[in-house]
């Protein structure tokens, strides 16, 4: 078929035009091109001019290398390369001959570069009309694109793939990493998290796609404004945003804002010059979660606002951070830094003398969850008020239907909302007694001057008064000794012998259960002393014969122990068939809840816990007067005090070894999974059974997961001990802690801890080190050699 010459010429021109991989026309940016950070420097724009790539000035702080909407007055940034490291004027970005984008500051220091997966072969770069900046080959294949490295925004046609994330900015005009993250995890779960600011480690999930967990492959944001979750085969699983908006009439974006809310915005292309995104957003009311103030209620972190502040939703559905009465913002320019007291706290040395100096301020529909340290049932509101006023630790109490919770500072997760039924009873100092105020300093100076004059003129009277006081207290103490009955104390030990009725009263009728074990139940209580110290009462089941002997042994042996990494025995009860042990109360619960919860403790804290448990076992094995084998070391039996120090508890399974013995034989005890192989072979048991259990516990601390997880991602990861051995053998220990940035930066110590753990779990007891050597190896005082492979016999049933 013949074509006229003009048609052939036109067809030839079409073949020569460059096309991107998605068929979109663009203006090529040739290799070697560069841009300089300056107010008059022109950016690289998309063919339509709707998007631009270049330097945007971020206030007076410096310049961002960014992509922004270029046709609206508010140059809204949708991507940036150096959000945490602004550059100054004169900095330069260059598209190198290798196709790499390199950003250097004025001194030539490299700030950022684009990772290029295609190696050589780059031919040009382009700013596309989709808002995507690409570096492409001559054939049009994208070697790198900004869509694969998002910051806080998604644009239509941009997908969020497995492992990708959005990190909110710190503030509206501060683009550095903030406190919230939107992430499609590699296991297919989509979450909104708070972060452990200033790091980007995830902290607490406050939103997720519950109905499609584990099956999501990609988050799709299509050209019609729909955002949905898709399976690997492209099937739509669930909708995130479901508005249908024409891209011909609106500019669209979905942004994780600095307040932790993921919002979808639409800006009319025909808007006047004064129009702003938030105004356009009211025509498209899509945001998750629906109420950020009540959504964030995690046990770790400050909540939607900072510590000592509270959050309430405004009429525009945006959170407002406020300070309670008696508190002011640390930084008025950054309300999310939280609030501080503007009064002096109650004197804990003389709390009763200061009750009249404080008052309760009511806050309706308000709560500060997860800062409770005490709670009371069947009380009225007036009782709750007085209880907080008379307790120097109490910063606020909350009351709801006969239930009173005492809370200490700093207050966290504060929220005021009509859905909350609690009333907050905030304790503040009366009057204008602000900490550091000039009036208070003047009053103090006056008091000091007056006191000095009186003191100087009354020395003789003071001496006489002291003599009188001495005589008075001498007689008063003598009288008191006659009145107060002596405590029943076990001879040679500072242990109180309680009656059953005393412990029943202390626990409120054994009402609040703390935990259960093989030998009984543990209850929370408070002694009737003046200070009302909290206790944990372990109520043992009826025991006779060997059980009764074991109880007597435990009381005598544990009563003589004293170490900072052991839970201290306070007393006991042996009355009829009742056998009870009274321990000091550990306010932070068990290690099991701490490391296997939904938030990972820091690597540093886990190391300190490992050191504490090892030192506690060393004391039991070698340093106390009678050698003790615990026989049931596991996370549930490691408790944490208020400072998160590890304290070994529950010696109900421990066996006493006389000083001239080195081993004992007993029936199988302990918890399977932590139990040494010799238990199952009816072999003599030594302190090495505790070494074995500690090895499993140490691996759990390193990896922050249980030794046996049937739902592990890979079959070879089900048994942690086996997986750890494989990783050590293959030089892939990073796989054990790959989601833990702090541990990843300390891989030498991770390797040492894993090798120590594998030495501890050797099947042959003689190969396991004693706890003294374990402590030395953990602390780095003794070199750790590469351990042999343990036997495949590791009980996990």
TrEMBL record:
Enzyme Commission number(s): 2.7.11.1
Location in the cell: Membrane
Residues reported to bind ATP: 539
Catalysed conversion reaction: L-threonyl-[protein] + ATP = O-phospho-L-threonyl-[protein] + ADP + H(+); L-seryl-[protein] + ATP = O-phospho-L-seryl-[protein] + ADP + H(+)
Keywords for this protein: ATP-binding, Disulfide bond, EGF-like domain, Glycoprotein, Kinase, Lectin, Membrane, Nucleotide-binding, Receptor, Serine/threonine-protein kinase, Signal, Transferase, Transmembrane, Transmembrane helix
Top-level taxon in the UniProt lineage: Eukaryota
Tagged with keyword Kinase: yes
Protein name (database record): Receptor-like serine/threonine-protein kinase
Protein kinase domain boundaries: 508-794
Keyword Transcription regulation recorded: no
Enzyme class, first EC level, given as a word: transferase
GO cellular component: membrane
Bulb-type lectin domain residues: 20-148
Protein family: Belongs to the protein kinase superfamily. Ser/Thr protein kinase family.
Signal peptide: 1-25
Ranges annotated as spanning the membrane: 453-473
């Amino acid at each position: 078929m013949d074509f006229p010459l003009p048609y052939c010429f036109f067809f030839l021109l079409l073949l020569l035009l460059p096309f991107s991989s998605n068929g979109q026309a663009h203006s090529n940016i040739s290799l070697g091109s560069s841009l300089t950070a300056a107010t008059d420097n022109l950016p690289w724009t998309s063919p339509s001019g709707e998007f631009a790539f270049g330097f945007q000035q971020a206030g007076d702080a410096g310049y961002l290398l960014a992509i922004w909407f270029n046709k609206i007055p508010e140059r809204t940034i949708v991507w940036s390369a150096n959000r945490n490291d602004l550059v100054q004027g004169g900095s330069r970005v260059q598209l190198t001959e290798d196709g790499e984008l390199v950003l250097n500051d004025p001194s030539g220091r490299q700030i950022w570069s684009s990772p290029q997966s295609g190696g050589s072969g780059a031919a040009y770069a382009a700013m596309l009309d989709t808002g995507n900046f690409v570096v492409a080959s001559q054939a049009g294949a994208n070697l790198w694109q900004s869509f694969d490295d998002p910051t806080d925004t998604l644009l239509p046609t941009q997908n969020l793939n497995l492992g990708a994330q959005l990190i909110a900015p710190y503030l509206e005009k501060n683009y550095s990493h903030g406190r919230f993250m939107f992430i499609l995890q590699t296991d297919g779960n989509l979450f909104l998290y708070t972060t452990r600011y200033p790091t980007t480690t995830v902290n607490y999930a406050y939103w997720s796609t519950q109905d499609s967990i584990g099956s999501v492959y990609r988050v799709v944001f299509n050209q019609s404004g729909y955002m949905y979750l898709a399976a690997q085969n492209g099937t739509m699983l669930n909708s995130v945003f479901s508005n249908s908006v024409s891209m011909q009439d609106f500019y669209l974006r979905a942004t994780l804002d600095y307040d932790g809310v993921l919002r979808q915005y639409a800006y009319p292309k025909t808007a006047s010059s004064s129009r702003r995104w938030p105004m356009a957003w009211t025509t498209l009311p899509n945001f998750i979660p629906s109420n950020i103030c009540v959504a964030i209620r995690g046990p770790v972190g400050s909540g939607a606002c900072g510590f000592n502040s509270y959050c309430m939703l405004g009429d525009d559905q945006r959170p407002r951070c406020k300070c309670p009465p008696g508190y002011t913002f640390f930084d008025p320019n950054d309300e999310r830094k939280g609030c501080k007291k503007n009064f002096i706290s109650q004197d804990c040395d003389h709390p009763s003398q200061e009750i009249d100096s404080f008052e309760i301020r009511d806050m309706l529909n308000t709560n500060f969850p997860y800062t409770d340290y005490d709670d009371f049932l069947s009380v009225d509101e007036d009782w709750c008020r007085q209880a907080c006023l008379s307790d120097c630790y109490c910063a606020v109490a909350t009351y709801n239907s006969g239930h009173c919770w005492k809370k200490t500072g700093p207050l966290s997760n504060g929220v005021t909302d009509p859905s909350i039924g609690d009333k907050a009873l905030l304790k503040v100092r009366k009057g204008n007694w602000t900490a550091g105020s000039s009036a208070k300093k003047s009053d103090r100076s006056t008091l000091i001057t007056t006191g000095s004059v009186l003191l100087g003129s009354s020395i003789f009277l003071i001496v006489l008064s002291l003599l009188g006081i001495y005589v008075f207290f001498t007689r008063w103490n003598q009288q008191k000794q006659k009145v107060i009955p002596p405590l029943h104390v076990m001879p040679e030990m500072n242990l109180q012998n309680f009656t059953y009725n005393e412990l029943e009263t202390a626990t409120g009728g054994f009402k609040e259960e703390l935990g259960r074990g093989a030998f009984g139940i543990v209850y929370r209580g408070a002694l009737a002393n003046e200070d009302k110290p909290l206790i944990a009462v372990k109520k043992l089941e009826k025991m006779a014969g060997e059980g009764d002997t074991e109880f007597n042994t435990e009381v005598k042996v544990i009563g003589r122990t004293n170490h900072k990494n052991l839970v201290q025995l306070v007393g006991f009860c042996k009355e009829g068939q009742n056998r009870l042990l009274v321990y000091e109360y550990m306010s932070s619960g068990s290690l099991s809840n701490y490391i296997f919860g939904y938030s990972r403790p820091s690597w540093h804290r886990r190391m300190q816990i490992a050191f504490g448990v090892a030192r506690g076992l060393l004391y039991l094995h070698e340093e106390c007067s009678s050698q003790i084998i615990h026989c049931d070391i596991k996370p549930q039996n490691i408790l944490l005090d208020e400072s998160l120090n590890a304290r070994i508890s529950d010696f109900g399974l421990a066996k006493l070894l006389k000083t001239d013995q080195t081993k004992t034989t007993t029936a199988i005890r302990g918890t399977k999974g932590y139990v040494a192989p010799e238990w199952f072979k009816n072999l003599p048991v030594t302190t090495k059974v505790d070494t074995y259990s500690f090895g499993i516990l140490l691996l759990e601390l390193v990896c922050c997961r249980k030794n046996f997880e049937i739902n592990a991602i890979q079959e070879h990861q089900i048994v942690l001990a086996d997986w750890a051995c494989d990783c050590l053998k293959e030089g892939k220990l990073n796989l054990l802690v790959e989601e833990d940035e702090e541990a990843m930066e300390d891989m030498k110590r991770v390797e040492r801890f894993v090798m120590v753990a594998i030495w501890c779990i050797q099947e042959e007891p003689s190969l396991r080190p004693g706890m003294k050597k374990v402590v030395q190896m953990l602390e780095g005082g003794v070199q750790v050699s590469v351990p042999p492979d343990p036997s495949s016999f590791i009980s996990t049933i």
